[in-house]
Amino acid sequence: MPLTKESIKELVLATRNPDKGRELGALLGGLGIHIRTLAEFPTVPEVEEDGATCEANAIKKAREVAKSTGLPSVADDTGLEVDALGGRPGVFAARYAGEHATYEDNCRKLLYELEGVPKGARHARFLTVAVIAFPSGDIHVTQGNLEGAITDHPMGDRGFGYDPVFLVPEFGKTLAQLTIEEKNCISHRAKAFARVRAWLEQQP
């Protein structure tokens, strides 16, 4: 039987990151679905993100959380590809400076590796893969990307992750300088979750 919107009464965000949780909650609000977070499920084990791609990690997180909670789950994974670094940090973006690196640690390492690279050669892109998984094991996969460039120093105090060093050319600002409303119109994560939202809304 095809899944319908009515069959999804609750949806668990497969993240313990409060910044991401707030952003995803805003992107999926107003659907008539109760959005829950992993803070409500303290016994759900941590999922090791050991996939070779963002899609593999997102699928693994969504499926394991759906299995553990018995509820539909949505997970995402984001990579940052910098052309001058041969595509690094890629799928390792969140832990580029080490397993327990802070946002600042990761940005600092990225800027260090790009020292001396001219402005016109700092092109980069974010890629987010979002996955809805059901306790049955069924999944639905979407993705979104955002093209931009890496600045030579952090700018802005909004957002999280690499937002202060990721320049969005059409705005002439970093993601951390945009309002949440502006960011949620153009970001990689917003695009991926707009497709998640559209899929939920278009179920017959």
How does the overall form come out from the CA principal axes?
A: globular
Q: Total domains, how many?
A: 1
Find the count of extended strands (DSSP E, 2+ residues): 8
**CATH class annotation:** Alpha Beta
How far is it from the N-terminal to the C-terminal residue, by CA?
12 Å
Unreliable runs:
none
**Succession of helices and strands:** EHEHEEHEEEEHH
Would you mind describing this structure in some detail?
This protein is of the alpha+beta class and 204 residues long. It has one domain: Maf protein, CATH 3.90.950. It is 28% helix and 24% strand. Strands 1, 2, 3, 4, 5, 6, 7 and 8 form an eight-stranded mixed β-sheet that branches. The longest helix is centred in the N-terminal third of the chain and has 16 residues, at 54-69. The chain is globular and about 55 Å long. The model has no long low-confidence stretch (mean pLDDT 91).
Keyword list:
single chain, alpha+beta, eight-stranded mixed β-sheet, 24% strand
Outline:
With 204 residues, this protein is α+β, with helices and mostly antiparallel strands. Helix content is 28%, strand content 24%. It has five helices and eight strands.
Question: Which secondary structure elements does this structure contain, and how are they paired or packed?
Answer:
Elements: E1 10-13, H1 18-27, E2 34-37, H2 54-69, E3 73-82, E4 89-90, H3 103-113, E5 123-133, E6 139-150, E7 166-168, E8 173-174, H4 180-186, H5 188-201
Helix pairs in contact: 4-5
